[in-house]
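Why does residue order matter? Because the sequence determines the fold. Keep that principle in mind as you read this record.
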Amino acid sequence: MPDRPGLSFTQIQAAMQAMIEKAMQLPEEPVAMAIVDATGNLLAYNTMDNLRLYSRRHALRKAYTAAILGMDTGAHAQRLHSQGRSISEMGDPQLTFGQGGLVIVKDGVILGGLGVGRLSQRPARRGSRARRSERYAPVEMRQI
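Structure:
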């Protein structure tokens, strides 16, 4: 039986290290970072000090949502909004409507998802929420 494509240990560790390095550039804005496989199972997780539990949980839910739905959570949220639908209609309580989840795809095959959760103390700049996950996601992971 052929192996299903997936993320290697080396890729996961490199991606997490790149996300941590990027997050440490703004230590006053702590984040949680999660990487899941194509079925939404946790592969790696890290969190900075002083981050609220809500944001920690949402990093996991964002990565899960991106992997399960096969699309970035921001794009999915826009699609649902344009259809006048709610995330609760999808029937999976782990799915989230929040921005910050990116799907990892190679050659058209979903390999997993990345999720970043944070709760900023300062007001968000216009358009900054939509790019949050891209800010922390390593370029190498997006181009696997």
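Confidence is low (pLDDT under 50) at residues 123-132.
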